[in-house]
């Protein structure tokens, strides 16, 4: 059984405008929106926060939280006092562990130095900065509200706050494989990210999601995306440039200098449980993921109808549990111990060994090409080639599990559950 959650994700859905690639559950309020009295959307934000606090109060009690993550949307539309109130609600219900990592996502165009200092005073000690690009033309093409000058100013404030001790760490998001991108243009982006001193970088491939502006443009033939070969070259370039600059590649999309890996993100990838609160948030308090409704009205109705029962998760199905472990585990640098997972999912040891042999045969080509590495009982993807083709490997693993899931007769067993993530290090979140 997964350990009781020691992490919480809070979804703040409000933003100024929806970016062209975004399919997250968000509520655009307009460019002049904010939580201060008299600003557009202030009443909507206040009403939503009341629902969020109600859901927290309904959750079963658990151990003190070691990581908290405010995601969105644009959480920096909240006033620092509102962030403080939510932290107080969590601390009163669960408690906060000493040295808890408390992360707030910030949009470069939504805060200044004084507002950053107010967030830090409220209890935030880690920031995730949604930069995406230093190129004004790319930012405009993505539908972003900020520009290069805003991003550079934000990185200076964050770097200064870290030097002064008020901020433990911060991360910068970048998007690669955007329309019109070349290896040289992307190399410049990476070197700028290194130059501004971000101790953590999250680098994501642009994905085209149904219902987005980009999906509509792609259907009309108006979106020229890098082909698969160029996308692979960009990922290889990312790994090489960041490795040379001293960043460790600890997950498919995440790089960090020593001591700056996101403890909260590690919770998602370790298989440990977490609380998720708010519209569209995903929770997994007992290892099985549960998504909240994606609209405000449906979320409010869900909260009113389900009450305390909604906050309690059923025991995870063993086959779904192992599938989840495959997906998140192979994204990590550490990889997985597949035999342990099979036994934990309820396969008798002889059947587990048979299933493991079948997986090895199915991945024979990937093993031969060095995309999958076997290191004793642990299997992992090579870096960067294996990680670059992680989706193909994961697809084979899921097809393999379809053949064996009928042998899973028991839930995850305690001996094979992951160690409590907060004793060392501990995912969109929602």
CATH class of the largest domain: Alpha Beta
Q: Estimate what percentage of residues fall within beta strands.
A: 15-25%
Identify the overall geometry: globular
- Uncertain regions: pLDDT < 50 for 5+ in a row? 310-314, 410-430
The CATH topology of the largest domain corresponds to TIM Barrel
Overall SS class: alpha/beta
Write out the strand line-up for the largest beta sheet, numbering strands in chain order.
9-10-8-7-6-5-4-1-11
- Head-to-tail CA distance between termini: 22 Å
CATH superfamily descriptor of the largest domain: Aldolase class I
For the record, the count of structural domains works out to 2
Overview of the molecule:
- The protein has helices at residues 42-58, 80-93, 113-122, 136-142, 148-163, 183-195, 213-219, 228-244, 263-270, 296-306, 318-329, 338-344, 349-362, 364-368, 385-388, 390-404, and strands spanning 7-12, 14-15, 27-28, 65-72, 96-106, 126-132, 169-176, 200-205, 248-251, 254-256, 275-277, 282-283, 290-291, 372-375, 378-381.
- With 430 residues, it is α/β, with parallel strands linked by helices.
- It has 2 domains: 7-270, Aldolase class I (TIM Barrel, Alpha-Beta Barrel), CATH 3.20.20.70; 318-411.
- The strands form 4 sheets. A 9-stranded mixed β-sheet has the order 9-10-8-7-6-5-4-1-11, sandwiched between helices. A two-stranded parallel ribbon has the order 2-3.
- β4, α2 (80-93) and β5 form a beta-alpha-beta unit.
- α2 runs parallel beside α3 (113-122).
- The chain is globular.
- It starts with 6 loop residues before the first strand and ends in a 26-residue tail after the last helix.
- Mean pLDDT is 87; it is low at 310-314 and 410-430.
